[in-house]
Write a structure and sequence with these properties.
265 residues; 47% helix; 11 helices; 4-stranded parallel β-sheet; 6-stranded parallel β-sheet; 10 strands; Rossmann fold; 2 domains; homodimer
Chain lengths: 265, 265
């Protein structure tokens, strides 16, 4: 039994979907979440900058005595996972690996689709991760930038997200994609809208997948907390309207409140 | 006759609409444009940060010998116009004043609507500027964040922008707004879509309005360039896909190319 918290970080609010998935699966685990809302979005920064930001946050989480670090941000996972794994002795895992593994395991057909931010698509990280696992699979990827804004603004139901889904996914669908990785932590909020248009596409929610990985690692390494219900500490570098709205959506009006925390100079 | 260039700056690509409006009205004027795409968006930064960024860019433009500075970014105009006016001897003008003046002049009814970014709405700058000119007018404002992404992604025609327009504008329309300020330099790209839904709303394009102000000031202060066709120098702190697409949209495939320029450490 290990009652140290799990550290989770993201470039902003999207990682709250990951935080929720981990909390739902592992309700006894304590969680410290940090969302870098002040410096969001990471997707337009250089790789070096994303690495620096990721290091700063990981260093803060380590100072809080976490037993594991979960990189909930796809862009950070693409840029900094290897580096943080080398630098820290606790397990460090990222959403890209979890998403790629789940897609290969659940593969339906010969093609996997990925929708993500422009930066994640450009990094090619999903393609590399999938090709390592299933070299024969063809990966079709596409950035879905409008989805980020729609979720940030809470426009997750109705005609607009459905029309946007058609615009982003129809071409992949016509090419036989029936397994689609939601390669941005915002996108699980659009699962319902996407399924209304494409009920037969299997949507890979990287938050749910990484929650299972967290569970496996905790069991393997004997790090589980079998104590009482785990508390969630939520921090963000800037308290924005969007953050507060999503926090309520995920954790309810009386859930964990988010506190502002500046970890850099 | 004064053949020094006019300096224009924006947080990103939106200011190209302003650049084009000024070039169309004053084709003989030389223009130096700087878009801070690397640090876009300004709307989520603190006021102090936006002031610092605006000063850095203004200082660069002054070092290039401009005869006038046009702040094409609404957020910068709200945060830094007064400061830059105090610090420099050349005329400095911003889009907010131009938009407010045009809306009051063309007022249709007793209410003016403003759609802008979240930061511009929060600053209340349009409300203050309009109230100074026409104290009796009621100002209804609303942030239209999804519009920014739709224009950045080039989704400016079809159902999605029309549905988004309804979502943002219907309430103002029902309250009698027939004069609407497009309070973000991206939004003129959506004029057609908005007019398809609301043909009787007068849309105030701050780029067109500020172009007229530039012309008036040049004439008043005897700063006009009556020489040959003015060249446009376009600079940006990062060369992105969106930037290149919009540059082509505005200035054609053979128009001025954008060069990368880093003006800060």
């Amino acid at each position: 039994m290990d009652n140290r918290p799990i550290g989770i970080f993201d470039s902003g609010v999207g990682g709250l979907t990951v935080c929720k998935a981990i909390h739902d699966l592992l309700p006894r685990e304590r969680i410290i979440y940090f969302g870098d809302t002040q410096r969001f979005p990471y997707g337009t920064r250089s790789i070096d900058t994303v690495i620096r930001y990721s290091r700063e946050i990981a260093s803060y989480l380590m100072s809080r005595g976490v037993k594991m670090i979960v990189i909930a941000c796809n862009t950070s996972s693409a840029a900094a996972l290897d580096i943080l794994q080398q630098e820290y002795s606790v397990p460090v895992i990222g959403v890209i690996g979890a998403g790629a593994r789940a897609a290969c395991k659940r593969l339906n057909g010969t093609r996997i689709g990925v929708i993500a931010t422009r930066a994640t698509v450009k990094s090619g990280s999903y393609v590399k991760a999938i090709k390592q696992l299933c070299p024969a699979v063809e990966v079709l990827q596409r950035h879905a930038t409008v989805f980020v804004t729609l979720t940030e603004e809470g426009w997750i139901e109705g005609d607009i997200p459905r029309l946007a889904a058609k615009r982003y996914i129809q071409d992949m669908y016509d090419h036989g994609v029936r397994t689609l990785i939601l390669g941005c932590t915002h996108f699980p909020l659009l699962k319902k809208a996407i399924h209304e248009v494409y009920p037969d596409i299997d949507l890979i929610d990287t938050g749910v997948e990484i929650a299972h990985e967290v569970q496996e690692i905790l069991i393997q390494k004997n790090l589980e907390n079998n104590g009482s219900a785990g508390d969630i500490e939520l921090y963000a570098s800037d308290i924005t309207d969007t953050l507060q709205r999503l926090q309520e959506m995920f954790f309810g009006k009386n859930g964990s409140q988010i506190r502002k925390l500046v970890i850099y100079g």
